[in-house]
Amino acid sequence: MDISSTPVPEDGCQAEDIEKEALALKNLQEVMAEIEGHLAQKAKQRSRIHSAIQNRPEESYFSKLDSSIKKNTAFVRKLKNFTEAQKEGILKDINTLNLTKYISEVANAIVEAKLKMTDIASILQVCTVLHEKYVDFSPQLLEAWQKVLSLKKDEKIPNPSKTRVDVRFYADLISWGVLTPKEGLPLLGSFLTNLINGDKEEHNSATIILAFCKFCGEDYAGLVSQKLVQDAERFKLTVPTSSWLPPDKRQNVKNLLRDYYASLCKHLTQDHKELQNFERQNRRILQTKGELSSERKEKQEMLNQSFTKLLNMTQQFADILGEELPELRQDTSPRDEECSVLELCGENMSDQARETLNDLLWENEEARQFYENLPNLSVYLPNLIPKVSTEPVPTPDPADQLIDIEKEAKEIEEGQSVKEEGDEDIKPAELEDEKEDVDVPVSLQSNKVLLDSFLTTLSACVNREMIDSAAIEFSTNLNTKHNRKKLVRALFTVQRTRLDLLPFYSRLVATLHPYIPEVATDLCNFLRQDFKYHVRKKDQINIETKVKIVRFIGELTKFGMYPRADALQCFKQLLLNFAHHYIEMTCHLIETCGRFLLHHPDSHQRTKVYLDQMMRKKSMLASDSRYLTMIENAYYQVVPVDSSARSSHIKIRPPLHQYIRQLLFVELGNKGSTNKILKQLRKLNWKDPATASYAIRCLTSAWKVKFPNIRTLAGVVAELTLYQEFVGHRVVDAVLEDIRWSLEFPISKFNQRRVSMAKYLAELYNYRMVESSVVFKVLYTCITFGVSFDYSIESDLDQPDNLMRFRLVLTILDTCGVFFSSGLAKKRFDYYLVYLQYYYWFKRSLPIWTDDNPFPVAIDFGMRDMFSSMRPKLKPYKNLQEAAEAVETLEKELMNKLSQAMPELQMDGVLGDDTLACIEEEDMEDGEEIREGDDDFMDDEQSLSRSMSQMTTRGETTQPDDETHNVEDDRCVVTAPKKAFCPEDDDFMAALDRMVAENIHDRGKEVTKPPAVDIAIPWQVKASLKKPCDGTDKNFLGDSLGGELGGALAAAEASASAIVTPSSPVTVDNPTVNFVLMTRKGNKPQFKNLAVPSDSELALNLRNREEAEKAEKERVKKLTLDFNERQEEEEFQDLYAGANRPAVHNVNRDRRGRFQHPKGVPDAELIFGGPRKNR
Predict the structure, then answer these.
(1) Angle separating helix axes 464-477 and 448-458, nearest 10 degrees
(2) Is 378 in the same domain as 482?
(3) Cβ-based neighbours of 486, under 8 Å, separated by 6 or more
């Protein structure tokens, strides 16, 4: 049966292959037909232009067109800002305007326009029409292009993006026939030649040449895509080519482009080699140092980006030109630890290798400067002669060195200590110093005060500048034999707690060493002797002194004062006696100079062996955890962690899973990313069980999201449920299951996860994904599940010292407790607070909490904050007895209500258990209110906010025994918002449009008058008018304009009585108004008083204007006050109506979206009653 069925799939595969071949042939024929149509269209366009220029209109035709400057300049301005949408308007303007005198401006505007690639076809049609009508257009256009495309040798392109479009535009002008090949090709050829020849090194203009090849390569070089040629050869078809240019010219352009491609390939190969070398150096640094500097990371990222960009352009050039891509050889060098630090060193070390070695030796550039750049004392003391010999240190034979290292490794592993000569009678170095101090000659006591002052200030030198100054001062003023001994003693006897001075003292010794080597030699001898003394003594005291000795040795080693071989010998001696204080001494020595010894070529191999032996001894060490931690910290501070061990534990996920995790765990919470994440999640294949299961698992993992972003994650789930209903159900089920699991297995390492899931559940309630009954069930479970209220019985699920459940409850209440403020949820919350306080006081009264181990204040403060924010008027219970009495009273009250509502229910044994059970706190009255609230369900549904999930229920009863209610409780209805169409909306929109149209029509008829601008009165004149002659204190000043030369500045009294001038008495029969007339003589203004009768037109106009302005202000003030009073009255009525409105038991329906004010400026005319009249 199997044999007979085998030919069937073969026939199916053959049929499928035939179908694919037919489809490919059809696509190829369509592409070739498109190419032929494009070439035919260009040929037809060239012939049409050639015939059109022979029949250009005469001058009488242009005289009938519009020649106004305004319209012609506007047309030129349009061309400078040309877009594809303006094509029809510009073609229409060409037929109505006479552009004979503006052809040069039109040509320059077309060339200077900032076009896009999509605008080329439209601007070509405009140029064609202009060329057909105007004889001078083509020469002027060519002249304008010569200014733009005139490129000198080695000249940089200022704006590559515009040049890329310009080159294609100019080439299409030639191929369309607007410019003749004889006129246009020389400019194009010179531009491309200079551009290519000047860009064969950096290839900054590769995008310009690539655009020319894509859009114009078919006409000028006969370029065809390599894929198209291969398909045509497979189906034995001929690719149509353009015959517009002669073959020799096309071949010249093609050769020029191939030369540029060859240089591009060479550049790509060099960049690839440079990138590989840099990556190889980074691998070496990672193997030896463990990390890369930020500069090297940035440089590698920049090299990767430039190489990727260059490779992309090279691939596009290869496809267009039909060439092969260059072979990029991969790096085959070993990538393991064999590429060690020793390869970086040598006699002919390059600058790059030296820089790499410096990065390995020192932590940063500042440390390298501190240990290597020392001041030159010969600058300050020219007579000083260096005393240190510069003979090179003989390098040992590598073979002998490896043999010695192997022997030492065996000695350390076996614990054999080799005794040196004189080890038995080693004494501390201080005794020799005291003997030397007794024999100080009397002749050297003259500068004792100066030396003591120098040594006193030496302990205050805590930076590089101060210690360098101290070295210069000692070498210039205190450089004697006795002072050198005193200096060595002072350096050696530094306080054991001042470890911060050791690097600076070592720098002082290194600075003096070239000219005063005795200081370094004596100090190193003292340290070596004291180190041997402490190692041989093997006591468990003076640990601070021992640490000071080894750290001093390490600092001097980094300055090169203490021989590296001796430092390694100290390391070896400590490893031979690797216990107690010697462990601490070893760790301090490694922390100080371990990095330097490991990465220095001379000591690399030996240090590496010693470190390995130290870790072996650590594995066999039966010591306390403090020593183990010190050893690991010291080792990993020098040797980087092996990345291969960590990479073996990395889980490899499919790309789709990685993308889902990237969306939810990385991008979630970024500004403006919520809508994008929701759209991407909607695009997933939710019909695939594997994809849907993984996405739901990620949506459930709230502990992997940043804590503030849990709210956003809940919002995403709520929005996604509108499109995939099962997502919300499965996420809520998983969250509840996780919370239950965390209560059943109270493991401390999952505490953060438990808090996150509690927060997530509360946020899901805020987005209406769960009912309040579910939240209260979880809250009751937190204080009842596995809880023992008997002091003699200890529960494994709720240990006496475990207060994690309080944190879960407080997290839930802090997130969604504010919504338990009305209706049925308020009663439930009040009942729950009674039981929560009982649980709180029970946990607090446990005997585990004593004065030495007090109850955590964080829980106490959390409870207080919860009460102050949720129920500020509620008085909390003060002890366990009050809480127990409250619980008993509450249970009796609820049982009485339950027995009245359901008398057939047997109440025996309900309260028999001592454990606190989850009670049912609602009564029949609440159920009646729920049934009343069902009638308003549809009205409440329409007001739900779009940003929240549209999940509501028919009721919220928590009777677990009533199956009929249980069906309604657990059912959630997911509905999307629907727009309700009604005729009132259409009538409203029609009335609104009509009102807006009438308002615009009325406003168009109004004549707007510019307001009169008053000239301010000069302060000299105003001061003279402050005191009128009639003895009154008040004076009213008004301003007006008049006069042709300088204008008139008037000051008028506003009162009905006259103002008297100083020269005339007061007359009631002839009241006047005093004006000040300003005239100008030369550059100096002059002011003259002018008395005008109060009944004159000037005075009457002034008074009428002031009275009209005052009346207008009073009217606006009255309207504003009336508007405020009306608004306050409406707000009061709303508050009164809200207070008397019957309570709705579904709290979720009571939440409305925040009111959003209408955008834009309010309609002032609608508020103040019609348009203002002209005055």
Answers:
(1) 170
(2) yes
(3) 451, 455
Residue type, 384: L
Residue 484, phi then psi, degrees to nearest 5: -65, -40
Domain end, chosen from 879, 897, 915, is at 897
How far is it, in rounded angstroms, from Cα 813 to Cα 832?
A: 11
| Residue 236: both structure tokens together | 């034995």
CA 1040 from chain center: how many Å? 60
* Burial of 546 (C-beta count, 10 Å sphere; 0-12/13-18/19+): buried
What are the start-end ranges of the E strands in 1015-1056? none
Does a structural domain hold residue 168? no
For 720-752, what is the HEC assignment? HHCCCHHHHHHHHHHHHHHHHHHHHCCCHHHHH
Asked if residue 144 is part of any domain, the answer here is no
pLDDT of 403 higher than 70:
no
Task: Indicate whether 517 and 613 sit together in one domain.
Answer: yes
Q: Are 735 and 679 in a shared domain?
A: yes
Q: What is the CATH number of the domain that holds 738?
A: 1.25.40.180
Say how far apart CA 266 and CA 274 lie, in whole Å: 12
Q: Phi and psi for 1059 in degrees, rounded to 5?
A: -105, 125
3-state DSSP helix/strand/coil % of the chain, to nearest 5: 65, 0, 35
Pairing outcome for strands 951-952 and 1072-1081: unpaired
Beta bridge partners of 1088: 1077
Is the distance from CB of 508 to CB of 520 less than 8 angstroms? Answer: no
How large is the C-alpha radius of gyration of the chain? 47
Given this model, what pLDDT does residue 346 score? Answer: 43
**CB-based contacts of 286, cutoff 8 Å, min separation 6:** 292, 640, 643
The answer to whether 656 and 683 are in contact (CB under 8 A) is no
Cβ(736)–Cβ(778) below 8 Å: yes
Q: Are 716 and 677 in contact (CB under 8 A)?
A: yes
Kindly tell me the sign of the dihedral angle through the C-alpha atoms of 730, 736, 738, 741: negative
Spatial distance between the Cα atoms of 362 and 354, rounded to a whole number of angstroms: 12
CA distance 367 to 373: 10
- Map tokens 């503030």 to a residue: 708
Q: Which two tokens stand for residue 29?
A: 């024929």
Say if residue 726 is in the same domain as residue 625. no
Of 868, 897, 926, at which residue does a domain stop? Answer: 897
For 646, what's the count of Cα atoms within 13 Å in the CB-facing half-sphere? 4
Q: Which two tokens stand for residue 917?
A: 């059970």
Per residue, the 3-state secondary structure of 770-823, as one string, reads CCHHHHHHHHHHHHHCCCCCCCCCCCCCCCCCCCHHHHHHHHHHHHHHHHCCCH
Of the candidates 589, 586, 671, 649, the one whose C-alpha atom is nearest the C-alpha of residue 623 is 586
Q: Are residues 606 and 494 in the same domain?
A: yes
**Of 528-537, 955-964, 1073-1082, the least confident:** 955-964
Q: Is-contact 160 208, C-beta < 8 A? A: yes
Burial 999-1037 (b: 16+ CB within 10 A, else e): eeeeeeeeeeeeeeeeeebeeebeeebeebeeeeeebeb
Q: Is residue 674 a part of any domain in this protein?
A: yes
Residues 556 and 592 in one domain: yes
Residue range 757-773, pLDDT digits in tens:
999 999 999 999 999 99
Q: Are residues 637 and 676 in the same domain?
A: no
- Pick the closest to residue 573 from 541, 546, 555, 598 (CA basis): 546
Range of the domain at 66: 58-133
pTM: 0.37
Q: Confirm whether 828 is domain-assigned.
A: yes
Domain count, the chain: 5
- Output the six-digit token pair for 588: 């301090």
The token pair at 249 is: 């010219």
**pLDDT-based confidence at residue 779 (cuts at 50, 70, 90):** very high
Sequence-distant (6+) residues with CB within 8 A of 1043 are: 1077, 1078, 1079
d(CA 736, CA 771): 13
